[in-house]
Amino acid sequence: MDQSPNRDPRKPVQPAPEPSDEDQVDIASDVQRGLEKANNKSESDRQTPPDGHKATEFDGSPNPRADEGARVFKPADDTPAVMPKRQGPKNPE
């Protein structure tokens, strides 16, 4: 049973309908109604709030900067300024 805190405990949980219980035409019309409802939403309902931040958000800046307010700990860059020269054969076999 679904023990979600948002569910009314007096209302029984509805089982998923079997594929044979509903005609394909009825399912298709339900889907079309849902699509129409989604398309009729205003533009403000579809967008995330401006203060929201997604990990994949990119503002288009050619010089991206880290968020100043994030206070994320980053490891120090330990890459040497000059890489040591390799010694020995290139392709040891």
UniProtKB/TrEMBL annotation:
<feature type="compositionally biased region" description="Basic and acidic residues">
    <location>
        <begin position="1"/>
        <end position="11"/>
    </location>
</feature>
<feature type="compositionally biased region" description="Basic and acidic residues">
    <location>
        <begin position="65"/>
        <end position="77"/>
    </location>
</feature>
<feature type="compositionally biased region" description="Basic and acidic residues">
    <location>
        <begin position="33"/>
        <end position="57"/>
    </location>
</feature>
<feature type="region of interest" description="Disordered">
    <location>
        <begin position="1"/>
        <end position="93"/>
    </location>
</feature>
<protein>
    <submittedName>
        <fullName>Uncharacterized protein</fullName>
    </submittedName>
</protein>
